[in-house]
Task: inverse folding
């Protein structure tokens, strides 16, 4: 699993926590199959969050483009 997959999954879990929802509710918000979404978010999954799906998630939750990728210029998180 690549770094981008890890980063995207981590940010999706942040969204789930922020919005007090689970993978099933996320799937319904996006019009996706809940079983597929749950499998996609599982640690070590061979399923990837595609670029299109990443942009759809960002838009649905009012996040800036490429936020799931860790490319949010407004993110002022310090990493020391």
Result:
């Amino acid at each position: 699993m690549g770094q981008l997959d890890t980063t995207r999954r981590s940010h999706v879990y942040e969204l789930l926590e922020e919005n007090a929802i689970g993978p099933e509710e996320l799937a319904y918000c996006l019009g996706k199959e809940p079983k597929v979404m749950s499998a996609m978010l599982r640690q070590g999954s061979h399923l990837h969050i595609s670029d299109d799906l990443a942009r759809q998630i960002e838009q649905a939750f009012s996040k800036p483009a490429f936020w799931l990728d860790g490319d949010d210029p407004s993110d002022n998180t310090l990493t020391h």
Notes: The chain has a mean pLDDT of 89. The chain is about 50% helix and 0% strand. The chain has one domain: 3-60. Residues 3-18 form the longest helix (16 residues).
